Amino acid sequence: MRIAIIQYGVLHDRFEALRAGGQETYYAQRYSVDYVAALSERHDFVGVIGVLDNEPSESALSHSLHSVCIPRDSKGGVDSPTVIKQLESWKPDRLILQAPIRPVLRWALKNNIDTLPLLADSFEESGLRYRYRAFRLAQLLSNPRIRAVGNHNIPSCLSLRRIGVPEDKIYPWDWPHELRPENNAVKALSDQPAKLVFVGSLAQSKGVGDCIRAGKILRDREIPFSMNLIGAGDFTDEAAALIAELGLGDQISLAGRQPHDVVVEELKSATIALAPSHHIYPEGLPMTIYEALATRTPLAISDHPMFRLYFAETPAARMAPERSPEQLADAIATLLTDANAYGAASAATEALWNRVKCDLTWGALIDAWLGEDGASIEKVKHQNLPAILAELPK
Asked: How many helices (H) and strands (E) does the chain have?
């Protein structure tokens, strides 16, 4: 079997770094790289196309595992013609599509290539143009030749259903759960300044500016804190300027991109984890949220549509409207000024973590779709969206 995979990020960069003893840069990175490497040992060919803002590159990692980087086009989008040209040269039998790229999906359907869309995206934007694009995507995903559609966790799967994808072919998937709340102690407020931690892309639409402005409000209220913004992105320079403008340089730091083990240690030592994403950001369910819950760290988050299912009414988190630094500061303050409420929030993280996680892993869904080791899509029907929704507490 010849398998092609399309993803964001370049496989050969991380493959070589991890093989040389490097650290993970995000959750489950080693797991996914090792899975793809093992997949190539069981099949004739596995080719991975990474879409990224890099120079084009290519690497033969073994006789059966190849990786290429295809830079974005001049408008910052996926260069679909070049991606399709690469696929045509590989002649795959199967395609794992980890981004909702409609031209590639149309090409695969036209050429009768069995395709597994394996996404981590939400589809909640408004506007006529966006709704039209979502409608066209749903048409393609509804094609009977698409046997299954994966998306990361239940809220993002519900957004697929809302745009018209048949629910019985939707499968909520998750990464393996190595970081677990039962291995971490419940937290209590201390008399030290609170440590607030944001992890993710430094983008305006991730609420980075809201975090900084909320910090100014907390300082004005004389609530002692420090804030660490971990990640990289196109808002980095603006974030630095805003921190300086508000005179918060002694309390808010820009840590840049950090290895995953450093991120976990930051969350373990954090008082509150921040996730104030704007509605326009296409969240699935950020790994920061999983890691916060697993490290017993209460959350201050926005009312993003992907967060409402689990977090609208839970003691483990405080929810604020998007784009509102004032109400984000209020949400943070309710935890930092009430030791009992804070302790209850930390204690509640384990139950919420157990509710949030999905048992069908990324690799297990691929195995089922490929028919690996006796697995099949039919054998995981009990883990599709309607089956899981039927088991959720009412």
From this structure: 16, 14
